[in-house]
Amino acid sequence: MSVDLSQFHQVFFEESYEGLDVMESALLNIDISNLDSEAINEIFRAAHSIKGGSGTFGFNEIAEFTHVVETLLDLIRSDQFVMEVDHVDLFLKSVDCIRTMINELEAGQSCETKLADELRVQFNALLEGGSETAENCESPSEETDEGSDGWTIYFKPDADVLRTGNDPVRMFRELSELGEVEVSSVVDELPELGSLDPEACYLAWNIVLKGDAERAQIDEVFEWVVDDSDIRIEKIDSQASEESEVNAEAAEPAVVAEAAVGVSAVKTEDVPASKSSVESSASVEKASKAPAPVKKESKPESVSIRVGTDKIDSLINMVGELVITQSMLNELGKDFTVDMMPKLMEGLEQLSLHTRELQESVMRIRMLPISFAFSRFPRLVHDISKSLEKKVELVLLGEQTELDKTVMERIGDPLVHLVRNSLDHGLESPEARLAAGKDETGKITLNAFHQGGNIVIQIIDDGAGLNEDRILSKAIENGLVSPNDHLEPEQIHDLIFQPGFSTAAEVTDISGRGVGMDVVRRNIQDLNGSVEVESTPGKGSMFSIRLPLTLAILDGQLIRVGQQVYIFPLVSIVESIES
Q: How far apart are CA 87 and CA 80, in angstroms?
């Protein structure tokens, strides 16, 4: 029975996006002058997981490109390549490239590989001769693999290896990519047919790998099962090679697959073999002959959201309380008398309380920390500040403040525009800041916090502030106000949200077209929110966005005016006076 892997595509996409976020964050925090080996390992593991998952689902374009990225990372973490600033930018571009390809796959489109091909050329240039080895570094203590005639491998996996999603046959395919492979099965522990568990692995294998494969390449094949397996690797041409365990970093079991190729020879001892083992061996030989599977038309993926176990536990507890209250009311109704009315009212009040708590628990499931929206800004600030030749520090506060998923998805673009404006218009150049007595490094702060039934998001910069004279002059020029009008500072600041308004002297690819701030306000108002700006000349500006926590359910108060009944959201009521 074949398994339709397309049902797991969305999980792969979500996990890949998380892996790319990990790579991007670690790359942005790298200090080239003091390279953190754990950061490199973190980037490598994320790339390796994406490569493995994409290979499993047949997304070969992603798997092949990520493999090249992973190879250079492996050289860096083994001190065989010196990482420089330009290499960080190259890795960041590769993250963007992989994210774009995943976006296309998620949309049911084919991968555009033009950018991947261009980046692959740069990676290969570094791998094939452009790499620089660390100066004065000691040669590796491990024995070299040059001149090796091959390797002998004994592989006895744990009995539960198949249940964890790891397939020994797939490992043999990966080994066959490294050279000529001969495999013989060891069936000493194979039980009688009546006691055989079809999901357990009773076999071990003796493997001969011929060719000039390196030990590290073999280690990589078995790294997902090393902790639970008996693996011994020995060089064929070695006279007294010590048997050694495969050294690999501990990793959670995951499904990893490369492009399938046939093993050159498979030998089985003359003993009865189970049907499953025979079929597995046969599938290895036939893999290279099988035509590429025809891609099925992508099915619409269900929208999913990750929920913390604490929220699930709270929901289960609330349901339990509700069931208890229901049972109590059922018992009360069996022999109900007027004297039992107080108990009935108490039970109904308890039912109302538990129903309300259940509603709140369900609503919290849709809430996500604002860090999901903030996570894009370290890279954005890095790239734009570099293009503007400005030094900028980004500070993120209140990252665990929660917001409804729908609001989160729609607030991203307005936030991006406001941050871009702060970078381009708000913060001065390093020279101008030094001349004004400031630190040459500007600061942008993103802060989020709850206030009543709303969330407030602030974008704060310590730049020059809004130029009120220039804003007023431009507004008069555009006919937005009259030269005779007397405007308060707040009214002048509010003019920047007018359609087509811009004080930029020239249009750049970052800002200056005057088509942004009015869209920002309109998008926020569509979410029943508001945006305000405060500015102090020479000190900086602060944009404050106020949004409802959720758009799904709002508490309201009934209001009767004449014969008409209205409902006002409680979060919109400033004061209520009871007569």
A: 14
